[in-house]
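@channel anyone free to eyeball this complex?
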Amino acid sequence: MTNENLDKQQGSTTASGRRSAKRSLTVYDDLQREIMLGVLPPMATIVEMEIAERFGCSQSTVREALIALSNDGLVERRSHRGTFVADARADDAHEMIRIRRDIESRSMVRVLRRFGSLLRSELSETIENMKAAAMQDDVYQLTLYDRAFHLNLFDAADLPSVRPMLQRCLIHNHRFKILNSGSQRDLYETAVRHEAILDALAEGNAKKATAAIAHHVTTIAEFGPDITEEDI
Amino acid sequence: MTNENLDKQQGSTTASGRRSAKRSLTVYDDLQREIMLGVLPPMATIVEMEIAERFGCSQSTVREALIALSNDGLVERRSHRGTFVADARADDAHEMIRIRRDIESRSMVRVLRRFGSLLRSELSETIENMKAAAMQDDVYQLTLYDRAFHLNLFDAADLPSVRPMLQRCLIHNHRFKILNSGSQRDLYETAVRHEAILDALAEGNAKKATAAIAHHVTTIAEFGPDITEEDI
DNA sequence: TATCGCTATATTATCGATAATGAAACGGAG
DNA sequence: CTCCGTTTCATTATCGATAATATAGCGATA
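replying in thread with the prediction:
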């Protein structure tokens, strides 16, 4: 409950109950979920007024959410034409994985400097949440916790300007994985895999931690043959 | 005049004359310039209504521009509190350079597949524009053309989802460089340096081109001792 | 029948006003 | 003098309506 980002998402994920917490965030979260799950498939058209009607809010509010989604690279806005769900191509996805791998790997030595029991227990809790989501087969919730885990960890590196880039990579990774996997059944395994990273950190071994995260990133998504290598 | 991004900027840079071309873009471009040049220093507060008054537009229009700036990581928006110019720290800047180096380096083999005389002449022209800006000591205009050069080149790699990440890196690199250099006088040299990249590409030598861009990125900004290596 | 300019239409972009909100200033109780 | 609740204030967030604009479709012309 300390991660602002996780809070954000919960704020609207819990939308079933209350409905405060910035209207535009609710729209943002809901649309993001539908795009990531493919309910809104690549190339689909999004019309501001339609969304506004659906959520019972004004066009301006939707607009803000759509702009935020375009920041994440989930939609593309064309002036006076409309907003379109972004394509999800394999080449981009692979490059995003590499970028993410590099960012997270390089961050570990910095993370280690600030790694303490507080962060450790927070991350442990997040892993437990992942497991719970996995057991309920809630793929999307699992990715939400996964994102929270990696961003929370990265925050310890204290590189605020880089954070949004990692976030963007994570979103794209997750979207691509969800869109290109016929309901794979190793969800629980995915959650458990995070423990290795935590263990390496607890050990205080920078080299081991770096290797752990690099391995983690390159293996979560069993994309084609070898993701790590330059493709084609 | 083919690059949409360059067009954007010119559209409002030329604002002295006409004033069409999306009001919010004008605000966006002007504020971006002021932030990059330090006119609006890190931590400065930006109030939506003040900007609106200054540009003679409505708060909504400013709002859109500010959201876009926060996407670029140039400002941070805090709910109901205000918008603040983002800090520009060395650690972040260094990591951004590394990310950029990796992205651009890896892209070269893809770029080479599509590199033709049209792109070559476009980039040549951009270099000439850089030289012109350098001779007029217009640092900011130089960075604008530099951005156009690198993005235009990267577009040939056809990795649309990755493009915004590169753009973000470029913006941060330029801002940090401008903010931390007491009017350095090698502007013209900076422009000329791009020719090596073009030459390597024209030669069709992937390895050489990759090395050229990597070298280019790590040397443009003579940050501290060694940018390439992990710092601290 | 192909091309060019015009118009109709769908959609965003902008506006001005009002509501919501978080933080700081204030004041009273202990 | 300090702590805690309340009010006030600066600022964003949202709304509903209007203006601007890019595209598609149509019709006239050669």
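from a first look: Chain A touches chain B through 34 residues (CB under 8 Å).
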